[in-house]
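user: can you give me the structure for this one chain? tokens are fine.
assistant: on it. calling the predictor now.
[tool input]
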Amino acid sequence: MPELTEILFFAAVLAVSGVLSGLLAGMFGIGGGAILVPIFFHVFGLLGVPEEVRMQLSLGTSLAIIVPTSIRSFMAHRARGAVDMELLKGWVIAVPLGTLIAAFVAARASSVTLRLIFAVIALILAGRMIFNRASWRLGDELPKNPARFLVGTSFGILSGLMGVGGGVVNNTFMTLYGRSIHQAVATSSGMGVLISLPGLVGYVIGGWGAPGLPPLSTGYVNWIAVVLIIPITLIMAPYGARAAHAMSRQALERAFGVFLVCVSIQFFVGVFS
């Protein structure tokens, strides 16, 4: 068992991550998971959680925290009239379906595989955001069904395997079809709701009875971390949404990209060191 001073230090680190994840949820529509997952992975490791279940636990716990954060962020963006509700309604089945598939896969994949998936996707998307050009377009209108349904399902799978709210993929998707980064961010906050709720259920079921889980865990969700971080993220998300609408498109995209690069490097170093 770790010493009391260690536990307090871990709690302080988690609290800081809660502040950052709440701001990121509002600013980038990503639900904060992209920062919570790597922090959880290291904190759970220091607490003695076996590597075999550590990444899955980090992903599931992140998605559980994203539930209220995404709802709060979505409400803040919707109040500004920036959310594409038509797109979200078209994904109400596709995105949750993909997320449940991801939870099933994650329960059977290795920790190293999940970390590499996280890092590779984050790095690809970072390149798109940092080096974005206005000429980079796939079209002027978002795809129609069945292509749109398949896109939503794939986004659910990728986000579920990364423990994020979907902004990392949806922001890129919408801007490639001529939508503003501000509308993409706002819509991604709603997508986070469609991902986090079924993701929570999927990771609880997928990790039910798994060995080596820390106390107060239900499947791959640790409720100590959830209870500690959720209040902080709920408070900070509206401030992030306000900051997003005050920034230029270029600044918002580059900030998002640099953040993803840092996260990706951190995971690559962890895998190959």
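assistant: here you go. The longest strand covers residues 217-218. The chain has eleven helices and two strands.
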